[in-house]
C-alpha cells in the first residue's frame, strides 16, 4: 500500500470517526484531547468482519472489548459517520437502506440502544451534515432537508431534543451553515442569510441568540470563512473583505473585535492561510506571500507585527508555479513546544522529509530524508511517521525532535516489505492534517495498520515498540476490517 492508498483511506474511513475531543468540525489547534477518567474509554468506528459490510463497532482497546454494536444495513455498508459523544450517548450518521437514507442515529453501545434519532430529510433521501461541534452537552451541526436547505441544528441525544435552531435563510436555498467551532461554551460558524453573504455567526442554542457577529465582506459578497480554530478565547480563520484576498483574520466574538490580522499577500492576491495549529501561545499556519515564494510556514501572535514567515524551506523562486516554489508542508503536529511536519525543500524531488521547528528560522530543521515520508502523527506522547530503511522498508519510526532521536520504532510488516499506518482520528470534517487523537487511555492512541497476513486492522500505540499492538483481527484472515 502506497501513498495513494493511504490518502484514499483518510476519506473513506476518516469520514466516520470519533471527534468529540476536538470539538467536531473545527480544529483542536493541535492540542491532544484529555480523557475524562483514567480507565479505558469506549470509542466507536465503522468496520467490516467479512460477513457484514461496514457497520458500527466499538472498542475499549482490548480484543475482548472490541465488537460489532449493530448491523444497521443488512447486506450492505451503513455509511457510518460518527459525530460526537454526549455523556453516555454517541451520535452518528448511518444508512439503513430501507426506510431512510443517511440520517442521524444514537447509540449507548448496545444493540437495543442503537436507534434512529431523527429523520431530518424525511423519506428515503439522505441528509448531509456539513460541519459539527459540541458545546455544553449539546451537538450543533449544519444539516440539509428539502424544505429549508442546510441550516443550523442541535441535539441533546433525544428525538425531542433534535431540532433546527434557526432557519437563517428561509427557503430551499438554506444558509449553508459550515465551519462550526466552539469557543468557551459559545458556538461560531459561517452562514448566509440571503442578504449579507457567507459571514461569521454565533449561537447560544436559541433562535433569538443566533446572530451575525460581523459582516466582513460588505453587501451581498461573501467573506469565504474557512480554516477556523479557537485558541485561548480567540477565533482565527481565513476570510476576505473584498479588498484584500483570502487572509488571516481573528475575532473575540464581537463585531469590534473581528479584524484582519495581516494582509500577507498585499492587495487583491490571497495568501490563503491553512492548516492552523496552536503552539506556545502562537498560531502556526501555511501561507503564500507570493507565487514566487509559494506556500511556506508562518506564525502569528495575533498582531500584524507578530505575523511573520518562519522559514522559506523551498528557496526556489518560481513566479509561474506556486507548486514549484512551495515546500508542500503537511501533517502539522505540535508536541512539547515543537512543531513537526513533512516538507519538500527541493521542487525537483518527489521526497517528503520530516522537519521540526521551535518557531525560529534557525530552529526549523530537517530530521529525516532517507525516503518519501507519506504520513506523520502524534500520539499525544510521541511523534510517529512512516520512515524507510533498507532493512525494514517503510515502517513505523519515531522522533524526539533531534536527528539522533529520530529512529526506527517497529516493523508492523516484518522484513523489507512496506506497510502503512494512520491515526483512527483522521477525520473528514477535521479541516487540518494534524488529526485529532482517538485515545482509549491517556497517551494510547488507536491506529489502523496494514500487515499482509491479516490485512488492514485495528491497532493501538503508546509510541513504544512494545506498546504498539494489534487489538483485533476484525475481518479474520487476510481480509481487511477497514475498506481502503
Automatic annotation (TrEMBL):
Instruction: Tell me the PROSITE patterns matching this sequence.
Output: PROKAR_LIPOPROTEIN (PS51257)
Q: Which UniProt keywords apply?
A: Signal
> For this UniProt entry, which residues form the secretion signal?
1-23
Residue stretches spanning the membrane = none
**Keyword Signal listed:** yes
Name the domain of life.
Bacteria
Q: Which InterPro entries match?
A: ELWxxDGT_rpt, Quinoprotein_ADH-like_sf
What is the name attached to this protein's record?
ChaC family protein
**Species name:** Alcanivorax hongdengensis
Lineage, please?
Bacteria, Pseudomonadati, Pseudomonadota, Gammaproteobacteria, Oceanospirillales
Amino acid at each position: 500500500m502506497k501513498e495513494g492508498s493511504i490518502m484514499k483511506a483518510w476519506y473513506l474511513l476518516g469520514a466516520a470517526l470519533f471527534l468529540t475531543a476536538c470539538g467536531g468540525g473545527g480544529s483542536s489547534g493541535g492540542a491532544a484531547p484529555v480523557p475524562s477518567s483514567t480507565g479505558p474509554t469506549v470509542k466507536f468506528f465503522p468496520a467490516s468482519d467479512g460477513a457484514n459490510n461496514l457497520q458500527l463497532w466499538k472498542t475499549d482497546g482490548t480484543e475482548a472489548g472490541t465488537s460489532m454494536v449493530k448491523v444497521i444495513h443488512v447486506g450492505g455498508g451503513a455509511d457510518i459517520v460518527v459525530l460526537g459523544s454526549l455523556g453516555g450517548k454517541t451520535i452518528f450518521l448511518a444508512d439503513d437502506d430501507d426506510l431512510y437514507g443517511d440520517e442521524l442515529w444514537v447509540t449507548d453501545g448496545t444493540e437495543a440502544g442503537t436507534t434512529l434519532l431523527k429523520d431530518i430529510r424525511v423519506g428515503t433521501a439522505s441528509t448531509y451534515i456539513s460541519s459539527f461541534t459540541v458545546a455544553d452537552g449539546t451537538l450543533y451541526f449544519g444539516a440539509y432537508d428539502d424544505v429549508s436547505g442546510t441550516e443550523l441544528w442541535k441535539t441533546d441525544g433525544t428525538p425531542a431534543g433534535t431540532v433546527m435552531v434557526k432557519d437563517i435563510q428561509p427557503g430551499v436555498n438554506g444558509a449553508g451553515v459550515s465551519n462550526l467551532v466552539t469557543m468557551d461554551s459559545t458556538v461560531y460558524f459561517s452562514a448566509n442569510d440571503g442578504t449579507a453573504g457567507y459571514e461569521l455567526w454565533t449561537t447560544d442554542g436559541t433562535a433569538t441568540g443566533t446572530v451575525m457577529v460581523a459582516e466582513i465582506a460588505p453587501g451581498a459578497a461573501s467573506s469565504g470563512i474557512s480554516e477556523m480554530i479557537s485558541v485561548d478565547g480567540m477565533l482565527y480563520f481565513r476570510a476576505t473583505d473584498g479588498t484584500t484576498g483570502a487572509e488571516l483574520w481573528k475575532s473575540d466574538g464581537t463585531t469590534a473585535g473581528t479584524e484582519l490580522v495581516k494582509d500577507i499577500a498585499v492587495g487583491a492576491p490571497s495568501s490563503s492561510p491553512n492548516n492552523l495549529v496552536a503552539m506556545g501561545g502562537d498560531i502556526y499556519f501555511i501561507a503564500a506571500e507570493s507565487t514566487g515564494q509559494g506556500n511556506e510556514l508562518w506564525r502569528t501572535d495575533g498582531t500584524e507585527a507578530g505575523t511573520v514567515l518562519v522559514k522559506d524551506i523551498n528557496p526556489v523562486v518560481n513566479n509561474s508555479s506556486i507548486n514549484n516554489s512551495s515546500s508542500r508542508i503537511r501533517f502539522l503536529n505540535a508536541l512539547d513546544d515543537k512543531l513537526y511536519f513533512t516538507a519538500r525543500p527541493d521542487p525537483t524531488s518527489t521526497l517528503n522529509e520530516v522537519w521540526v521547528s521551535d518557531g525560529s528560522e534557525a530552529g526549523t530543521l530537517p530530521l529525516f530524508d532517507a525516503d518519501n515520508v507519506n504520513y506523520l502523527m502524534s500520539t499525544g506522547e510521541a511523534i510517529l511517521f512512516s520512515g524507510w530503511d533498507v532493512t525494514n522498508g517503510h515502517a513505523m519510526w519515531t522522533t524526539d525532535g533531534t536527528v539522533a532521536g529520530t529512529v526506527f520504532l517497529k516493523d508492523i510488516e516484518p522484513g523489507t516489505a512496506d506497510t502503512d499506518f494512520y491515526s483512527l482520528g483522521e477525520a473528514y470534517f477535521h479541516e487540518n492534517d494534524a488529526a485529532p487523537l482517538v485515545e482509549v487511555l491517556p497517551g494510547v492512541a488507536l491506529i489502523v495498520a496494514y500487515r499482509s497476513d491479516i490485512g488492514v486492522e485495528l491497532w493501538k500505540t503508546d509510541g513504544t515498540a512494545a506498546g504498539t499492538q494489534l487489538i483485533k483481527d476484525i475481518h479474520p484472515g487476510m481480509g481487511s476490517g477497514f475498506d481502503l
